[in-house]
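Me: I keep going back and forth on a fold encoding question. No explanation is needed for now; the record alone will do.

Assistant:
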Amino acid sequence: MAWAMLIVAGLFEVLWAFSMKQSHGFTKLIPSIITIVGMIVSFVLLAFSMRSLPLGTAYTIWTGIGAVGSFIAGIVFLGEHLNFTRICAALLIVSGLILMKMSSSQ
């Protein structure tokens, strides 16, 4: 259950990061509200998952999902630039997430 909460927390991190971009510095109401609610949900789920997962593992997975998910959302929804170097960087992050999961006893 902790892993499921952690994955959902990471997805909410992507949501709030994307919404923050759409809020234009918190000048647009709806994206600003989505950002704040997304942050709260993400942090609460992260905290619950940390009850049974090691700190380093939980935090690394959470930020990794957020980083790679935001990278993908930026490309798909915002037309951000995609090149070989950025793809390699994302693959290195994913590799780190896999290794972190494999090293966890949970």
The chain is about 80% helix and 0% strand. The chain has a mean pLDDT of 95. Residues 2-103 form one domain.
